[in-house]
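Database export, one record per block. Field names are fixed; values are copied verbatim from the stored entry.
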Amino acid sequence: MVRVKRGVVTNRRHKKVLKLAKGFRHGRKSNFRQAKQAVMKAGQNSYRDRRRKKRDFRRLWIVRISAACRMSGMSYSRFVDGLTKADVIVNRKMISEIAVENPTAFKALVEKAQTALEA
């Protein structure tokens, strides 16, 4: 039986992993065993954090809206409740942008929420 030489396949596999490990520090970029583990862990982290990013940004938007509401003398929960009762359909990302970029427009939203809560 003929001997099978697998050097080409192994080299390709190693090169693929080492290419993914480019920019890692110390042996994790050049040692195949360490690079393989580091690439696998990096993949797990990036998969998890793609989902987490959505949560983190929503939390950031809520914190920004809450801070702007407090400056206007209203709590975040009452503000959101007021907007719901006033049938204002704007997502938190846009409300956050309005609060940061255009405080006068945000003040108008707060007043609209306030009137809806009183009615």
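Remark 1: The chain has a mean pLDDT of 96.
Remark 2: The radius of gyration is 26 Å.
End of record.
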